[in-house]
Each structure stands twice: as structure tokens, then as C-alpha cells.
Please model this.
Amino acid sequence: MKLGQPELDRHSRTPVYRQVYDRFRDAIARGQLAPGERLPSARSLASQLGTARGTIDVAYNMLAGEGYIIGQGAAGTIVAPGIAQHLPNVKKRQKTAPRASDDRPSLRLEKARPFQMGMPALDAFPRKLWSRLAMRRARSLTPAMMVYPDPLGDRALRDQIASYLAIARGIQCSAQQVVITSGFQGALGLLKELLLHRGDSVWLEDPGYFMTRRAFEITGADIVPVPVDDEGLCVDAGIALNAHARIAVVTPSHQAPLGVSLSLPRRLALLDWARQNDAWIIEDDYDGEFRYTSRPLPALKSLDQADRVIYAGTFSKVLFPALRLGYLVLPENLLDRCAEISLLLQSGRSLLNEQIIADFMAEGHFARHIRRMRQLYADRRTALADALTDRMGNRFRVDLAAGGLHLLARPKRRESDRALVRKATACGLAPAALSTYCIKRDCGSALLLGFTNIPAETAPRTVRLLEQALAA
Model:
């Protein structure tokens, strides 16, 4: 608990007990200490502030005498529950409203909001099962598990990922080639150090994920925006813009944010370009598991004969973002250097979480969870699209991609998607604007609407909230 300045002023004319009294009174008046909140014991506070316990007792007695606090014997001392109504100048703590002027999509430390992008269905996650696995792992902690972990990640998890990729994504690799990372951004950090020199050119999809763009911008890379059309990345356009780029970053299974898939001719052309130019392709397969009109497409890496594709996956979209765990599949000749870089840069991974995920996969829960989520998301996607068409069909055209975790709502008349997002954000909703994903290309105006956390039965009500927000 912080009450004003960290130290008492021993040279002030105001006695120390009065300074303590003033701090608590002001904190209660400002709402920093809420009614019913427990205060530290006199002994504990005296030790914290470096003063005598009797001084704290005097301050507490004054506060109690004026009705600010109530002593409860062995249960301690609390702020008086009804004190707020007797303080005319109380300034209650308020939750900071989302900044209406902030157009860029953001990752927020709060519960999922309606239409929020990149968020799995947290209400459908098997928390009890996960807790049971976590408790089992925690109880099995041994001294051997308490040493510094393998910089490339827990071997059991790497084994499970290699097996999963072979079955689900068509990627043949060994566990040795799998590297555990601190989410996708951690993967990019490793790859930038591993592959990139300052001034190197990087192909990025236009439009594309803004966090990927920002990650390469801060390294001083030469960003080459390559347009995306109905067949995905325009490889010929990229070659015309800069044939000798060092890296191409693509989302071939479900392009972020347009939702199209990279066609087979484009995939082969991209692989051929990388082979001829000794370039690298980073395949960001951020939600390739979720396809609703057919089976999930094989990964681009499954077609790679020259070992030029580095596959990047994440558990954020299939499990939950707070894990901050992802993985890479690297060519074997990059592993030693990657281990060295990972040892220097990746210090925040949790071995316990890696072991829990390994158990979750080994016992079959992972595959079953993905199957359940695929059906759940298909239902929620349909329900949201229908609700949008029914209630706002005169204003928006809904574009449904074959997969992914969001849909696009394009205004039928000229409207700024950023202005629409500002209105929705001010009302507690969290759509994103397509234009914020564009680098140079004008992709038109559209709202990106995540549907994973909107149950089918609440979709009409949520769309009504959106309609009211945009009419404000």
C-alpha cells in the first residue's frame, strides 16, 4: 500500500503521528483506500515507516475517533464501510475509459471485450482440467527441475509439438528442430537476431499484422510492403519491388487481416523465390487450425524442399494469451546459434507452463480442445454474421472468410473505419479498423470483429450494442 511520499519528513514542524493521520485521511478521501479495506497492523506499519508503534497508535486512534476507520480486534482494522457518504469531496477511483483517440488495436490487461481480436473463447477453456494438471506438475517438482532450463525449451513439449505438426499441419520435423519462444513476438525477436542485419529488406504483407511491422521497424529493417489480393501475397509484385529481400513474413493459411488463403501457385512461386535468392520465409500460422468450410490447409512449410521456411506457431490463439508461449521450427544449421541467442534474450518463459502444455497434449486434451473450439467458433461466427445482416445489413456488408477468428464488416457508404472504432471503443466494445493494418495500400474501410467470445445466444444483443454505439 502506498500512502503519499515513501518517507516521513522528520524535520517538518508537523508531528510524525499527524503526518501518518493526514496520509490515511487523504487516501480515504481520494478513494485510494476503499470502504471495508483492511489496514496494516500498527506494528507492521511502524516497521515499514521506521517509527515507533506508539506513534502509529496515536494516528489510528485519531482516525477511529473521527469515524474514518474501525477496529475489529483480532480481525484487524478496516476503513469504515459507510465513510464515503460522509465525505463530500471524495474522488472515487474510476476505471480509465479506453482512449477514444487511439486507433491502433491493442492488447489490454483486462477481460475480453466484445469483438476483441486475437482472443480465444476464454469461457470455454477447460480451466478445471488445466488446474488439475498444474497441481500435479507442481507437486512433482524435483531439485533437477529447479536448475536453469534448456534455452530451446522443455524437451517433452518439443516432442509433443513435433508429433502434432506432423499429423495436423503436414510438417515433418524432429523435436530437435522445435524451439519454444515467448509468444510470437518472442519468436520474432529471436529471428531478427538470427537472420537480419541492419538495412536488410523484409517483405511484409500489406495489409498485415501491425505488431509484426513494428517489430521490424525498430530494428532498422527496410520494410517492403507487398500487396495482398484474393490469392494472398502477390509474389510477382514483391519481386518487382525488391527481389533480393532477406526475409518474407507471410500468413498463408489465413491472411491477417483479410482472411484469404495463399493459393498453391503463389506458394510455389514464393518458395522458388526464396530458394533462388537464399532468402528466408517466416510462416506465421497464427490460427491455421480454425477453418470452417473444409479441412485445415497444410502449412506452407510442408511444401518446403529447400529448407527455407521457418514455421512459427503460438498457443495464444488455441489455449490462452497469458501463457505467452509459442514455437518455431528451424533448419538444423540454425539451432546452435539460436540456442545462444535464446539464452541471452529469453528469460521470461515458465518451465511449469511448458510442462503443463506437454501433459495437455500427451493426454489428448489438446486435439480434443481444438475440435471443440472449431465447432464452437463455427456456431458463433454464423450467429454473429446473421445478427449483423439482420440488424445492420443496410449499413454493412459482412465478409466471411473460410477460417480465422474474426470477420469483416464493410460499410456500404463512405465511412471512416477509424471513426467507427472510436465510437465503439468509447462504449466498451473492441472492434479494430482495417485501415490500421495497411502500410501503403488502400484496402478500403472495414471493421474487424472478433467473434470467439460472443456466445451465439448473445450475438443479437451484442450487435444491438454496436448499432447504438455507432449511432452515438
About this structure: The chain has three domains: 16-86, 141-364, 368-471. The first strand starts at residue 38 and ends at 39. Residues 90-102 have pLDDT under 50 and may be disordered.
